[in-house]
Model the fold of this input.
Amino acid sequence: MERRLRWATEEGNGLEYLAIRHTAQGVVAEGVVVGPDSGDLYQGSPFGCRYAIHCDARWRVRQVEASVAVGARLLLRADGAARWRGPDGAPLPALDGCTDVDLACSPFTNTLPIRRLGEALRERREILVAYVTLPGAGVTPSRQAYTLLGEGRYRFESLSDPFQADIKTDADGLVVRYPGLFRRLG
Done:
């Protein structure tokens, strides 16, 4: 199965294209983002990047690659048990315990914990994610929480700062609307 999706930022100054496919090993998501600096989503300088996220069949992140046009490159590998390594294979203990990755510039990465946790989200679940900001490719641990509010509706909370949003998804857990940030096109 393969799906192709597009999102725009609510302000209209950013766009994402995503191709997601299921393989015998799991899920591969490849995206291209053109938009503002995700550190300041609405007023940042423009950038472009490509990313690929590889998950196993249980939606556990196994590899993340991102490259910014004329800029930073990122490669992270995870063992499926919340331990991460850099491109040289060296452990990244600062990310120990991070179960998912969150690319600040992409609504797709909200799908990862939604699919991985499934019905467990009927109760609020706190998670630790590897939070990636672009274009600089900074990676820090970030505490977040997700709660299923009803069919295709999830509350996202950043526990690192006072932010929350009620996200609308389709039946596959892919974001349709992320109020104030993203909306899916077509």
Q: What stands out?
A: Residues 2-185 form one domain. The mean pLDDT is 93. Residues 34 and 48 are 4 Å apart (CA to CA). The radius of gyration is 15 Å.
